[in-house]
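quick q for whoever's on today - can somebody do inverse folding on this one?? i tried earlier but teh output was garbage lol. tokens:
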């Protein structure tokens, strides 16, 4: 009986921990997915974030005024709208980063991509082991540090901290059930 309870608590704790590692990231922060005032807005925004396998990008935009197309690197570089991998025209649109690949998104409304409404995610990482954080890499000699991004970062540290607390509580309950 106790072995079954311990197994159940362990499975629940592990599942909660893995689900909590993935976070929702609202593309563009509070402004959402729109034609930016600066052509490098989304590049600067993405440079300030850490993306992990399992994270969900949420594109919020005015339906009918914008869309989200998944494209190749060439499609991204050249704002080529002719052969997207997918095209979503309703908001909000959620996209899960399921692999360590690079991901490229553009708006296919004429003039929007060339004005900077495009996003490249090229720094997807595996989830770090519980309780660890990825090391910061020092800048290469002569390389400028990344620019300061004005969009607020997603609340991933809060989510992960709460998941850790919940996991510790469940494990404590399991240990208590074993002892008594």
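ok took a stab at it. sequence:
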């Amino acid at each position: 009986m106790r072995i079954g309870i311990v197994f159940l608590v362990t499975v629940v704790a592990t599942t909660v921990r893995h689900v909590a590692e993935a976070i929702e990231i609202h593309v563009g922060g509070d402004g959402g997915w729109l034609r930016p005032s600066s052509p490098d807005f989304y590049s600067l925004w993405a440079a300030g974030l850490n993306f992990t396998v399992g994270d969900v990008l949420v594109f919020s935009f005015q339906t009918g005024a914008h869309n989200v197309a998944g494209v190749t690197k060439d499609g991204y570089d050249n704002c080529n709208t002719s052969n997207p991998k997918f095209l979503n025209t309703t908001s909000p649109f959620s996209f899960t980063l399921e692999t360590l690949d690079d991901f490229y998104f553009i708006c296919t409304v004429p003039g929007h991509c060339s004005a900077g409404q495009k996003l490249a995610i090229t720094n997807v990482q595996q989830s770090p082991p519980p309780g660890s954080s990825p090391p910061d890499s020092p800048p290469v000699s002569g390389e400028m540090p990344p620019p300061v991004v004005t969009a607020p970062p997603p609340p991933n540290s809060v989510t992960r901290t709460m998941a850790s607390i919940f996991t510790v509580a469940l494990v404590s309950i399991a240990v208590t059930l074993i002892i008594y």
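fwiw The mean pLDDT is 73. also Residues 24-126+150-155 form a domain with the Immunoglobulin-like fold (CATH 2.60.40.420). so keep that in mind when u check it
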